[in-house]
Write a structure and sequence with these properties.
Layout: E1 5-9, H1 13-24, E2 28-32, H2 36-55, H3 61-70, E3 71-74, E4 85-88, H4 94-107, E5 113-116, H5 123-127, E6 136-141, E7 150-155, H6 161-173, E8 177-182, H7 189-205, H8 211-222, H9 228-235, H10 237-251, H11 260-268
Parallel strand pairs: 1-2, 1-4, 2-3, 4-5, 5-6, 7-8
Antiparallel strand pairs: 6-7
Bound molecules: 1,4-dihydronicotinamide adenine dinucleotide.
Length: 284
């Protein structure tokens, strides 16, 4: 299976990063978002990060220019029709994702691989919204995409070996390391990470310590490069809540119960860094 042209759906923090690494690695990229402002913001972010890479001597001005030219933005999902691979990175919500996959199933040729960057939702259920579950797969990048080496590649129940191999090779062509996991809520990454973040939020909720203290303990005591609450702000508190809900529902165990303080922050619109406010404030 040859991958030349990739559509990335969702130009938020993950989608824009995915589009960037695909373009830098030589793929033709179509970036689509339902929200035009988000699309423009995504493209601007890519240009800014690439300009920074030029300043740091990581890439040449010519490479930057060529990469930017390889990314086209589009306001229509129908343009997926001539793509070999679609990587979906919209909000972590099953209804939104299944609707998109069912649309993509109609729009794209039967050989097109449909991948999702979901952090936790069952690949098998997303695949069931299509008539090609063998060509649906999880391709879970880490944040920030241009920096982090891992791509968790998740097989749904029906994902074919050929599709798995193609996606593994594609991830490697992006200079990432692909790790294969099976389809269980939260996969490996967020099944291990998110309960820790949730527990850190509980310690704030129960008055055990202030956010700064919680983060200091985990940084200096456990050698984590970033404290769990800073990381939660960075991931997005809405995304953290969606993931905890998926774990709670998927395993039916109260150890995954989202902390009420996390729910409260999300309801308040304190979604973390992207909203300017989460456990910390990001307004200049
Ligand atoms: P985000 O909130 O930054 O971006 C989501 C984008 O999707 C927005 O620009 C929004 O306009 C767009 N969108 C929403 N509904 C749409 C639709 N129906 N059609 C087209 N575009 C639509 O979210 P983020 O953080 O980029 O997350 C996206 C996905 O990546 C989620 O599934 C999340 O779980 C996953 N993910 C997130 C990570 C993180 O650290 N934030 C890490 C790894 C995966």
């Amino acid at each position: 299976m040859n991958i030349n042209k990739i559509m990335v759906i969702g130009a938020g923090q993950m989608g824009a990063g995915i589009a960037q690494v695909c373009a830098v690695s030589g793929y033709d990229v179509l970036l689509y978002d339902a929200n035009e402002e988000a699309l423009d913001r995504g493209i601007k972010g890519i240009e800014k990060r690439l300009a920074r890479d030029v300043t740091k001597g990581k890439i040449s001005e010519d490479d930057k220019h060529a990469s930017v030219l390889r990314i086209k933005k589009t306001a229509s999902i129908d343009e997926a029709a001539d793509c070999d691979l679609v990587i979906e990175a919209v909000v972590e919500n099953m209804d939104v994702k299944t609707k998109i996959f069912s649309q993509l199933d109609q729009i794209t040729p039967e050989q097109t691989i449909l991948a999702t960057n979901t952090s936790s939702l069952p690949i098998t259920e997303i695949a069931a919204a299509t008539k090609r579950p063998d060509k649906v797969i999880g391709m879970h990048f880490m944040n920030p995409v241009p920096v982090m080496k891992l791509v968790e590649v998740i097989r749904g129940l029906a994902t074919s070996d050929e599709v798995f191999e193609t996606i593994k090779q594609t991830a490697e062509s992006l200079n990432k390391t692909a790790v294969e996991v099976n389809d269980f809520p939260g996969f490996v990454s967020n099944r291990v990470l998110m309960p820790m973040i949730n527990e850190a939020i509980y310690t704030v909720y129960e008055g055990v310590a202030e956010p700064e203290a919680v983060d200091e303990v985990m940084k200096l005591g456990m050698n984590h490069p970033m404290g769990p609450l800073t990381l939660a702000d960075f991931i997005g508190l809405d995304t953290c809540l969606y993931i905890m809900e998926t774990l709670h529902e998927g395993f039916g165990d109260d150890k995954y119960r989202p902390c009420p303080l996390l729910r409260k922050y999300v309801k308040a619109g304190w979604l973390g860094k992207k909203a300017g406010r989460g456990f910390y404030s990001y307004t200049e």
